[in-house]
Each structure stands twice: as C-alpha cells, then as structure tokens.
Amino acid sequence: MTDWDRVRADDYAVPTDRPLTELVAELSGLLRSPDPAVRDTQAYAVLATWIGRGVLSTDQLTGLGDEMVSRFGDPEIQARTFAPLILDSIVSAGVFEPTWVPPFERWYVAEEDLRGYDGKLGWLHAVAHGADLLGTLGLHPAVEPVQMLRLGIGRLLTPTPYVLRDLEDDRLGYALAVTLTRDDLSETDAVEWLDPVVRVLATPPADGFAPEVSNTIRTLRATYLLIDHGVRLPGGTLTRAPYGDLVKAKVADVLRVVTPYYL
C-alpha cells in the first residue's frame, strides 16, 4: 500500500517504485472507501491532481472513465457519488467518450440518496457532484446543451424526501447557468427546459410544497442571479448567456407562481 499522505506532502509527486497503472488502480479502489479521510483526502485529492497535471495518458484516462461509469451502479453510495467527480476531471482534461453520458443521466435522475454530509461517511453530495459533471458536459461541444438542461430540471423535479443543503442547489444552479452560455443553444431550447416546472407549479398543493419543489425554486433563484450578473466559466472568464433576458423572464414567471411578493 502506498503512503498517500507522503505523496500529498511531496506536492503530489508520482512515486517511482511502482508502475503508474498500479498506482492508479490503487487510488481507484480507495475511491470506494467509506472512510472520508481515505476517499477524499487521499484518493480523490491525488487522482484529481494527477489528472489535472496530465500525469495519466489518454488511454489511462479512458479506462478510468469507463471504470467510473460502471460505478453508477455500485451498491455503495460513496462509490456512486465520487464517480462523477473523477469523470468531471477526466472530461475537463480533454478526454471524452459519448458512451459515458447516458449512464450518468440515468444515475443522476434516479439516485435516491441525496444526503449532503453524513457523520460517518463524510461528504456524499450526489446532487452537487453530479452537477459539477453536468456543467462540464453542458459546455462540451459533443453534448447537446438542452440535453443537460433537461437533465438538471429532471433531477430537481424527481420526488425526494430530501431538502437540499450545503449549497447543493447553488452548485446545480451554476451548472445550469454555465450550460445556458452555449452559443449554439437555440432560443426555444433556452427556455423550454423550464416547462416541466410550470406544469408542476400550476396547481400548488394546499398542504405545503414537496421537498423537490423547494429544491427547484431555490436552484432557479441561483440560476437567475448568475444569468443576471454574468457566469464565470471554469478558467475565470466572465460571460453572458446569449438568451439571458429570455431565460430571466421565464424563470421569473416560474417563481412568480409561488412567490408573487418576490418579483
């Protein structure tokens, strides 16, 4: 077993006593650990840093991406929720396979365990981690932007007992806003992804809003704010959504149904 704390202390220098393939395989295995000190501080921190620094070859990144996709069906929640983080790093590093997208979409909408933080398992963050990958895919030229917008709203409207916390709604709001900056997004697609929310809110319940409705409203508020003030893309560039005014108007119409005093 590699001393990964020593690797971190050495500025993530790659150990030379073992082949890189073995080191990556060990890190990948540790990403399933229920111990957050092992999973987050060691495995994820080292692996994400190496990916960002270009340590892994294209073939290695592709193989690791395939492995992460398979984890969307893992029985352990921490294994499922750390898979999109590594995929995000891989796609951000320039390696992308179209076959990775459908399994991610299926998992993201269907995931039932939406705990942000667990006292024993640490950070799980299914919604936030999935949102990070959604935003990266939303900017990828090989992915249709409206596909990611629909995925985001589908995740939000899926019934759940969890009210999002720990800024997960902001992470997803940012992912939606980033996707809305795509210049190949049509005028229709820039607003029609919100239609399912309109239908859900058309008949407000008399006994209070379900958690998923509350999650949706708060996420759309974050999206509105970003579209209004500008979206800072990965890398630091501040940009505007090409149909920002239309998006804001549609979001305002949606929010006005439940918060007429707000707008």
> Radius of gyration in whole Å, from Cα?
19 Å
Measure the end-to-end span: 57 Å
Helix content: 55-70%
The mean pLDDT is: 95
Biggest sheet, strands in spatial order? Answer: 1-2
Bulk shape: globular
Write the layout of secondary structure elements.
Blueprint: H1 4-9, H2 20-30, H3 36-53, H4 58-70, H5 77-92, H6 101-110, E1 117-118, E2 122-123, H7 126-139, H8 145-157, H9 168-179, H10 189-192, H11 195-201, H12 211-229, E3 231-232, E4 238-239, H13 244-258
Antiparallel strand pairs: 1-2, 3-4
Helix pairs in contact: 2-3, 3-5, 4-5, 5-7, 6-8, 7-8, 7-9, 8-9, 9-12, 12-13
Quick gist of this model?
With 263 residues, the protein is mostly helical. It has 13 helices and four strands.
Can you offer a commentary on this structure?
By secondary structure, the chain is mainly alpha-helical. Helices cover about 60% and strands about 5% of the residues. A two-stranded antiparallel ribbon has the order 1-2. Strand 3 (about 230) and strand 4 form a beta hairpin. Helix 3 runs parallel beside helix 5, helix 4 packs antiparallel against helix 5 and helix 5 (about 75-90) packs parallel to helix 7 (about 125-140). The longest helix has 19 residues, at about 210-230. The model has no long low-confidence stretch (mean pLDDT about 95).
